[in-house]
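Listing S7. Sequence submitted for prediction.
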Amino acid sequence: MLGITGTPGTGKKSIAPIVAKRLGTECLSLNEIARSYGLMTKSGAVDTQKLLARLKEDFSRNAVVFGHLLPYAVPPSALSKVVVLRCEPGVLKERLRLRGYSPSKIIENVEAELIGVVSSDAFDVYGAAKTREVDTTNSSPTEAASAVTEVAASRRRDAPRIDWTLDYDSGAKLRLLLSTAG
């Protein structure tokens, strides 16, 4: 099973179905599974322990499973590879704004992407041998799906990590990024 994760807005929902189709397998959305089992609150919070318990029956199937909750709900034994989708924080901020996210949710997710929260958690849970990052900043879903499919097929054990903090090396850049104004 291939896992795809990333901060909200990095492209999981657009890219995972394309990858699943190319791999000839089904595509499982963690959010949809949580919603179907009544494990998602109106605010979007999910009880990951209950989700994990419900998912165990699905882990024997070959599939592409995706969602930002992947590192918190899917055990390492269930996945052969994990791809973390990443997006430059300034671009992510605009994507989330266009989706109608609240200013506080935009900043929360931009901060998480800036410091690599989901990526770090994925590497911690699944290890460097299984986990890779793909930058979706300037890619169409089809182009990003090609990169993910290539990573899924690769046996390489080393890959560079993405570090957005290097691009935000001054207080002024950080204030602009994390501002809720216009």
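Caption to Listing S7: primary sequence and predicted structure tokens for the chain studied. The domain at 2-88+116-162 is CATH 3.40.50.300 (Rossmann fold). The two ends are 41 Å apart (CA to CA).
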